[in-house]
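QA checklist item 7 of 12: single-chain prediction sanity check.
[x] sequence parsed
[x] length recorded as 412
[x] structure emitted
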Amino acid sequence: MGSIEACPHLPVVLSGRLDQPLAVVGITHSQTCLVLRGRLRALREAGFRVILISSPGVLLEEIAVEEGAETYIIPMRRGIAPAADVVSLIRVWIALRRLRPDLTEFSTPKAGLLGNLAAFLCAVPTRIYMLRGLRLETAGGFKRGLLKFAEYLAARCCHLVLCNSESLRQQALALGIAPAGKLRLLGHGSSNGVDVDRFSPGPDKMRIRLGIPAAAPVIGFVGRLTRDKGVPVLVEAFERLLKLAPDAWLLLVGWFDPSDDALSGDQRAFIASHPRILHSGFVADTAAWYRAMDLMVLPTFREGFPNVVLEAAASGIPVIGTVATGARDAVLPGVTGMLVPVGDAQAIADAALHLLNHPQLREAMGQAARRRVMEHFVHHQVLDRTVALYRDLLNDVAARRVNALTKDAAAD
C-alpha cells in the first residue's frame, strides 16, 4: 500500500465515506508493528481505510504491505525527550488535521500520549487508547510521577481506554489513570489473539540447526532481552538449574533492545559467552522456535498481556510466568503452567526443574494451554470483538449527530 510522508506539501485527505470510515492506528517504534499483525487487516476487511503512523523502519513497511494498510511516517523517541516530543506532537497534529480520521487508536507510551493529545486537539470523533502495559510500574521517583501523568493525560484525551488484561485494567483504575467507566476489557484480554494454525504443536527442526542434542532439556524465552523482561533473573535461575540439570540449555529468542531498561555490557557479554545459552537476535517469525522448547519462561516485571505466552500455549508449551500485572492473566497456575514471584530466580529454577522432572505433567499443561487458547484467544475471535466495538462506537457518533440535526431542525 502507499506511504504518506510527513511533509508540508501533503494534500488534504477527507474523512472516509460512510461505507469506508478512516481509522488511524499509531505506535511509537516500528518493531511494535509485530503486535499489529492481523489487527490492521481485520479493520480493513471490515470496511475501514487504515493508516498506520509510526517511526520509520523496515518492519513498518513490511507489516503495512502484509496488512494492506497505508503508512504515515513520523519519528518519535521512546525515551523522554521534550524538544523532540514537541516536534513529534506537532507532526501528529498536522497529520490528523489533514487526514480527518473517523477513529484513532494509539498505543505504546509515547505514541499513546502524543497521538491521543493530537487527536483531542483535532476533535477526532472517536479516540481510543490501547493500553498495552504500564511502563511506570518499573520506574521510581520523579520518572515514575512523570510517566503516571503522561498515562493520565493520554487517558483524559480519549473516549475509551482498551486494556489488554483484567489485571492491567485493575491497576490502571487503582493508579487513578482513568475512571472505571472509561476502562474497557474485551473478552478475556489480548489485543490480537494468536494464529493457532501458525503457532501449533509439530515436529522440531530447530535443535539440529542450533546444535542442541535431541534429548537435552530446553528452557526458552521469547521477547526483548531487557531488565524489565526479567532476563538477568532468568540467567541467574538457569545458572542455579544447571547445578541439578547439567544437560539443560537456555534458548533466548530475541534481541538486545537498546531501551531504557537495556542490559548492561557485562550482562550481554555473559550471555554471548555462555556455553549453554543460545540467543537468536531478532526473529520476525518465531513459530518454529517454540517447538524446540520443553517449556518457556517469561520472568517479566510488567506486561499488558504477553503475546508470547499465547504463542507458546498455542504451540502446546507450558509457561512459567510471574505474578506481575498482565503476566498473571496469561497463565492458569497448575493448569497451563506455573506462576512465581517477580524477581525470584530460585522460584524459577525450582519450577523449571519440577516441570523437567515430570514430562507427563508438562505434556498435560501444554495440552491444556492450547485448549485455553482455542477457547478464548484465537485471533479472529479477538479481532472480531474489536471490530464490532469500533463499529458500535462509530454508529453512536453518527446517531448523536443525527439527533443533534433533528433537534436543530425542530428548533428552527
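[x] summary fact logged: The longest strand covers residues 49-54.
[ ] second reviewer sign-off
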